[in-house]
Amino acid sequence: MTRKDEPDDYEVGYRKPPKQTRWKPGQSGNPSGRRKLTENQYELIADIFRKPVKVKDASKDASDLELMEAAILAMAQRALKKDKTTLFSLIRLAMKEIPEPIEAHKQTPEEKARSDKFARNVFGIDLNTGEDLWANKSPAERAQNSE
Length: 147
What we know:
By secondary structure, the chain is mainly alpha-helical. It has 2 domains: 39-98, no CATH class; 102-147, no CATH class. It has helices at 39-50, 67-80, 84-97, 109-123, 139-145; strands at 52-56, 62-66. The chain has a two-stranded antiparallel sheet with strand order 1-2. The longest helix is centred in the last third of the chain and has 15 residues, at 109-123. The radius of gyration is 25 Å and the shape is extended.
């Protein structure tokens, strides 16, 4: 089955759409893109994470913590139980969000290069910029970039 404006050797069929209906180079299939969160939605999410929750510690005493604090505490407890994925996630979070202490140990250039390489390869963090190098990358791409 061919159309008038297509060459005789081109057959329209399964996975072979007519040429005039194909995507043009540079054309997006979703021109308006994904809907962005509004300011109200960000504020709603922040409010949820600020809500107090009761948390029992080892002494069975309950204390009020913000939901975000409780979630990070739960991650830390899971990480201590040898959950490597959670441990790496927690370390990546700490490396991105916690500013470097003022009284930090002064590293030699060799030590700094070694720790930068370690952070980049193991946690996917650029210590100089705080950039997440693993965002939107598959495990295969991560392994390739860490070499």
